[in-house]
Amino acid sequence: MTYITETETKLKKTKRETRKRMLSEFWFYFSENRGAVIGLWIFLALVLIAILAPLIAPHAPNEQYRDALLVPPVWEEGGDWRFLLGTDPVGRDMLSRLIYGAQFSLFIGVVVVTLAVSGGVSIGLIAGYYRGAVDTIIMRIMDVILAFPSLLLALVLVAILGPGLLNAMIAIAIVLQPHFVRLTRASVMNEINREYVISAKVAGASPFYLMTRTILPNCLGPVTVQATLSFSNAILDAAALGFLGMGAQPPTPEWGTMLAEAREFILRAWWVVTFPGLAILITVLAINLMGDGLRDALDPKLKRS
Amino acid sequence: MSNFIIKADNLTRHYEVGGGLFKKPGTVKALDGASFTLEVGKTLAVVGESGCGKSTLARVVTMMEKATSGNLEILGKKAEPGLVEMRKAIQIVFQNPFGSLNPRHKIGKILEEPLQLNTTMSESERRKLAKNKMELVGLRPEHYERYPHMFSGGQRQRIAIARALMLNPKILVLDEPVSALDLSIQAQVLNLLTDLQDELGLAYLFISHDLSVVRHIADDLMVMYLGKVVERGSAKNLFNKPKHPYTAALMSATPSANPDKKKQRIMLTGELPSPLNPPGGCAFNPRCQHVTDKCIKQSPILQGKKDHQTACFNPLG
Ligand SMILES: Nc1ncnc2c1ncn2[C@@H]1O[C@H](COP(=O)(O)OP(=O)(O)OP(=O)(O)O)[C@@H](O)[C@H]1O
Ligand SMILES: [Mg+2]
């Protein structure tokens, strides 16, 4: 009895240790890339800001201060300490809106990437596993989607579905998923003739089991990298759609929509466009840097084992 | 008679290849009329150059691929991939120990997968069996929680063997199980295989291109050339008195066990012909020293006593 519990705890311990070792190995390769680490910290800060938005934002995002229209940031002449980054044309606090905007951007990123990854990976698995006519049909459709400039296609889709944040996200997901299809298909075709897949087949695994349990886990490395890069693409595209009036609708404090609303004041009040633009830039840059680091850390070819 | 655990009659496996927009598809006769038997608890070794259809034979015998024609009986019944009992009875070990284990699964999971897929055992039963087989192949219990990349080639091959044994098979198809390993480790794995055979009464279909490995383990021997069996019989007979010039050439190329016996080295000249368009008559004729007109016109068939058959018009000795 005691012997059994002893081995059990020992087993648990080794389990924890291997996990720790794998994590530390991952971190070792990831942290060799300085930019990736910086990107990660910025991204974590953004997540924190998004979660804590109601606590740290000095004002409600849609509250209009009629006495303070287009107030410049504090360090400019005429700045007001109530509004650190100034106010927009209808007297809303820029800083608060930017903070709440982080929520939207991350939300968009998460939803779009989830949709695109789950759709793209399933389709890619089927195409790569069955090949033949199924594969040809799927890949031709994906080629057609990829042949359009992504933003244009997203615009067309939103025009069909109707403007709005949700439809914009669906459209962007559709535009992004061919990348996942291609990537997954290529990895599946690479793995499917490896002996471990064949031996699972000999052991009697069904096609579904083979696809999801045997092959898929071995294809996730490149998909993870692509997912991070798509995250930033999604944010960028959603901002662009917002800017064109096809995405999130005013008064939502989405960064792209904020840019669009402030378009006519560019010359008079630089801060109304500069700050949302900077927010988008920093977020996208941070995530891309992080994606580069992930690629290095997950690519077995760069590893010395 | 019912001692035969595998009985193959005229097995063929053809592949259609290269059918393009402007090209007619060709046919590769990867396996072209192979007949053989495997007895309970015995080892049949299959040797031949690369590309002669050894792995194809393994795939057909393990029912991964259907034979284009011919008859295959396993355990006295016609081979049928749908029969779970039959599938459990025949398992395979591959050459490449680095590709044959799922890199994302722990050893425990790798070993238990065949049970999970084919039986209704509980998790603890599966674990017990897995530990059992690990001990059988000389792995330590703490290896259970490790990933394949933490093991050496020899250890991985042990894991692959343990996995093949999980369903208590009667036959193991070993497709060049040691050719990717260092010499000293080859010997260890071969010893393990012989021990397992004695202990469990397994029959082996042992595929190799290395005759010095085969010498240690084979009861019967089958030599293949371009998808055809050119010589077959007991290992002793073939090693002592090869009749087919190809077999003789292969034998002379491997270092002999007793150096006193002076041997003349027979060189194989020329390349292995393309299986897409094999020479007419005896497929070996372009490289044979004893070639006659008959060899170019007609194709020899396997004949002779049961424990030593050869397909040659001008057999040696
Ligand atoms: N799926 C396939 N499609 C087309 N041709 C194939 C296929 N599989 C094998 N072949 C051909 O069949 C022939 C025999 O191949 P096989 O893999 O059985 O050889 P082998 O004896 O195992 O060689 P090696 O010693 O290199 O493993 C080769 O010419 C090969 O090109
Ligand atoms: Mg082979």
Which helices and strands, and how do they pair?
The complex is a heterodimer of chains A (305) and B (317).
Chain A: H1 2-31, H2 34-51, H3 53-56, H4 94-130, H5 132-147, H6 150-161, H7 165-191, H8 195-202, H9 207-215, H10 220-243, H11 255-261, H12 271-298
Helix pairs in contact in A: 1-12, 2-4, 2-12, 4-5, 4-7, 4-10, 5-7, 6-7, 7-10, 8-9, 10-11, 10-12, 11-12
Chain B: E1 4-17, E2 26-39, E3 43-47, H1 54-61, E4 69-74, E5 77-78, H2 84-89, E6 90-93, H3 107-118, H4 123-136, H5 153-165, E7 171-175, H6 183-200, E8 203-208, H7 211-217, E9 220-225, E10 228-234, H8 235-240, H9 245-253, H10 293-297, E11 303-305, E12 308-310
The structure holds adenosine-5'-triphosphate and magnesium ion.
**Percent in strands of chain B:** 15-25%
Which homologous superfamily in CATH is the superfamily of chain A? MetI-like
Q: Which topology of chain A does CATH recognise?
A: MetI-like fold
Q: Radius of gyration of chain B from the CA trace?
A: 21 Å
How many strands appear in the DSSP assignment of chain B? 12
Describe the structure.
- The complex is a heterodimer of chains A (305) and B (317).
- Chain A has 305 residues and is an all-alpha fold.
- Chain A has twelve helices and no strands.
- In chain A, 72% of the residues lie in helices and 0% in strands.
- The longest helix of chain A has 37 residues, at 94-130.
- The mean pLDDT of chain A is 87.
- Chain B has ten helices and twelve strands.
- Chain B has helices spanning 54-61, 84-89, 107-118, 123-136, 153-165, 183-200, 211-217, 235-240, 245-253, 293-297, and strands spanning 4-17, 26-39, 43-47, 69-74, 77-78, 90-93, 171-175, 203-208, 220-225, 228-234, 303-305, 308-310.
- In chain B, the strands form two sheets. Chain B has an eight-stranded mixed sheet with strand order 6-7-8-3-9-10-12-11, with helices on both faces.
- In chain B, helix 3 packs across helix 4, helix 3 (107-118) runs parallel beside helix 5 (153-165) and helix 4 (123-136) crosses helix 5 (153-165).
- The two termini of chain B are 31 Å apart.
- The chains are: A mainly alpha (305), B alpha/beta (317).
